[in-house]
């Protein structure tokens, strides 16, 4: 978040022009969408009559009610403290998603029965594939960043070709190229190592640019000063450059790990028993696809939240020097 504002001013959501503009925008959006055939139309039946026959009046009445409720919600939440506002909005959005899921008529006993296997087999595989991949990708990224910052033409050419190639191909294609292509050269590789290699090479290319930009964000004088007192290249990078570059590198690297966690589902196409593969397989047997897909989605989301909290804690640790 930004630094706290020291100038007192009226809360934006309490200004009349903002409320009216928000009301008009919400009204226009929902007026353009015909909600008379949904549960909202049934809820408004006492006002609009038969939803299917209400026409423009029904659409306007529904849009008007939604706009009023939305604006009242925003204005009332504006009186609470920041943390309370965040908690209320999260709770409201969560309830909306639960209401959305309820429309699928999910079999909760079936989900409860399969959930332990999804966690012990699928989630565990997803975590260790992603964890190993991010470690390898980080090592590749450091080497690639150093090569792209070097004056050695060969090293720069290899690093730039690598980043261009692996950022230019879809990850799914890279999975297929490694799993099906390497055996053509005589290298037989199992599904899990192939998936880890594909994820590592793909995300290593993206993270190379993250590390490069992080290192370049440090003033050149830091490098020159460390070299002038006799520090070697390795010592300069470990003790001077990287510690200062980490606050810049960590946020996008954390985002890459969270993204890799979800992209690991692509390795299911080569038979890796990760979360998405098991969710799809278990759902096919009884044609209860939505139960398993929603279960997998909730596990992915829960794991992402945990990683976001870890990332935020690491960022706060490295941002201590900037706190006044």
TrEMBL record:
- UniProt-listed NCBIfam families: HEQRo_perm_3TM
Topology in the lipid bilayer: Multi-pass membrane protein
Pfam family, any one: BPD_transp_1
Give the PROSITE patterns listed for this entry: ABC_TM1
Q: Name one GO molecular function term.
A: transmembrane transporter activity
List the record's Gene Ontology CC terms alphabetically. Answer: ATP-binding cassette (ABC) transporter complex
Annotated GO biological process: amino acid transport
Q: What is this protein called?
A: Amino acid ABC transporter membrane protein (PAAT family)
**Known InterPro entries for this protein?**
AA_ABC_transptr_permease_3TM, ArtM/GltK/GlnP/TcyL/YhdX-like, MetI-like, MetI-like_sf
For this protein, the parts annotated as crossing the membrane are 17-36, 56-79, 86-104, 124-147, 154-179, 185-206, 294-314
Q: Which organism is it from?
A: Shinella granuli
Q: Cite the Gene3D superfamilies for this sequence.
A: MetI-like
